[in-house]
Design brief:
Number of helices: 6
Radius of gyration: 17 Å
Shape: globular
Bound molecules: iron/sulfur cluster
Oligomer: single chain
Length: 239
Amino acid sequence: MIRVSEIFGPTVQGEGPLIGKPTAFVRTGGCDYRCSWCDTLYAVLPEHKDEWRAMDAEAVLAEVSELTGGRPILVTLSGGNPAMQKLGPLIDLGHERGFTFALETQASISRDWFARLDWLFLSPKPPSSGESIDWDKFDACVEAADGARTALKVAIFDEADYQFAKAAAARHPDLPVYLQVGNPAYPEPADGALSGAELQARLMEQYRWLVDHAAEDGWYQATILPQLHVLVWGTERGH
Ligand code: SF4
């Protein structure tokens, strides 16, 4: 069974190589990390366990199909850490029915079924998260992806995060790399939650800093993106 925190969509992917692509999200419950700026703690912390559902592959696809009017779609498997779940049967059954699958993980757990994904986005957490990376586990995820199109995606809040992203990219120079401006809404600023306009302004300020920084640094291989869904919907759930 798969522990599911929420299923929603169709909406658009807000990050990475598939930005703007219509997708349904299957967010699994449970995570082996506790990032300082996590924006989905309801899919991480055990106190939310009662909100999570145990579903088999058939039930997950039935719910996604209900949302899409029966049409196959790109399914984004997110979390929490979806690599904690047994998702091979869901991927296989979905492929038989025309669905495609992208999975996003911090690359702390590798699975042999990664190779059956259509896309694998590895998002190692930088120093600002408060977590530390085990590079051997990260490398094992890259290896397990054999066959899946793989990309590296790193959230950037500050200079240390930027340097971390460069180190991660240098380990696997063949992987496309996406720098994603960190969401300033998390953790909530000491002076209180940001309004939609404040959030957009801070996000854009950070984005300009990151673009200028990468340009001055001559790092032209990286694609630099803001989180599209945060710009459009703020911190609202379901997008
Ligand atoms: Fe949250 Fe992702 Fe960090 Fe888990 S890895 S705590 S889901 S940001």
